[in-house]
Amino acid sequence: MKHLSVDFPPRISLSGPSPLIPLERLSAVLGLDIFIKREDLGAIGGGGNKLRKLECLVAEANARGCDTLITFGALQSNHARMVAAVAARQGLNCELVLSRKVPRQGLHYEQGGNLALDRIFGASLHVLSANEDAIAFAGMRAGKLAAEGHEAYIIPFGGSDALGAIAYSDCVRELLEQARNIGIDFDHLYHGSGSGGTQAGLVLGAELYASNVLVQGISVLHQEAPLTAIVEEILKKARDRLGVNAPDAVSPILVDSAFVGPGYGIPDARTLEAIEVMARTEGVILDPVYTGKAFAGLLDHVRRGRVKKGEKIVFLHTGGVPGLFAYADAFGPAV
């Protein structure tokens, strides 16, 4: 692996390495070697990709002497749930600004899933309408807390900024070490791309550790052009913060937005099929907001020949399983 003399920012330790596991039955069905990296199996909070980002973001909050974490997202935000869990682990206060941006109602969605865990972790919840400005509200709360003698650290949507991307680049280092240990060289890395920070971190990691793996984002939120621009901007700021230049041959940002479907947080038939394929083939649970759509994209690419025979794929399970229970009615009646 390429040796780097890069001054990485401080990070706290929240979890160990996530497993890299071959999907043997699925590989036999699809005729390709497919592995899964289980970022969902983190040590706390129900797991997920946000844990790596929070290792650096919360380290910065601690260095600034902050006693409160504030972040924002949708009502069933996985990111918000993980911030609440990490705040509890670190002995910090936590305020979550949650917006009703997904047109979904009912007991499961408005009381269960991540929301139940947010309350269990002790977070203070502020629920806004779809049209209210969550960023402005978070800033207002930080100001009010400051007047009361507290110091708040505002974590961006999805933890997706330069620091979060730098933190997530470590996933690639870990993946490459695991792959080398079993004699695998991956051609494609598939993941769900929402706020752009995870994809920027994966691309940054591929650059830093000289990997030729193609990082394929399956959008769950934006159309291709705006998401590409978001990833490029975060990636540029991450490089600047580390003081590294873009490589001479810059790989294009790969985004497929065909699986956003009706919108963010709204699963369609392809998403539900993908969840069932993974569950009934490998016993692995995906979620209807991120990983279900990402895996639907992977299945489509394989079926249409966009991934060639003999190429090796790793699917990044970014978590979100607790949110599945907010969508229990999407899978039909239980009895």
UniProtKB/TrEMBL annotation:
<protein>
    <submittedName>
        <fullName>D-cysteine desulfhydrase</fullName>
    </submittedName>
</protein>
<dbReference type="InterPro" id="IPR036052">
    <property type="entry name" value="TrpB-like_PALP_sf"/>
</dbReference>
<comment type="similarity">
    <text>Belongs to the ACC deaminase/D-cysteine desulfhydrase family.</text>
</comment>
<dbReference type="InterPro" id="IPR001926">
    <property type="entry name" value="TrpB-like_PALP"/>
</dbReference>
<feature type="modified residue" description="N6-(pyridoxal phosphate)lysine">
    <location>
        <position position="50"/>
    </location>
</feature>
<dbReference type="InterPro" id="IPR027278">
    <property type="entry name" value="ACCD_DCysDesulf"/>
</dbReference>
<feature type="domain" description="Tryptophan synthase beta chain-like PALP">
    <location>
        <begin position="16"/>
        <end position="319"/>
    </location>
</feature>
<dbReference type="Pfam" id="PF00291">
    <property type="entry name" value="PALP"/>
</dbReference>
<keyword id="KW-0663">Pyridoxal phosphate</keyword>
<feature type="active site" description="Nucleophile">
    <location>
        <position position="77"/>
    </location>
</feature>
<dbReference type="GO" id="GO:0019148">
    <property type="term" value="F:D-cysteine desulfhydrase activity"/>
</dbReference>
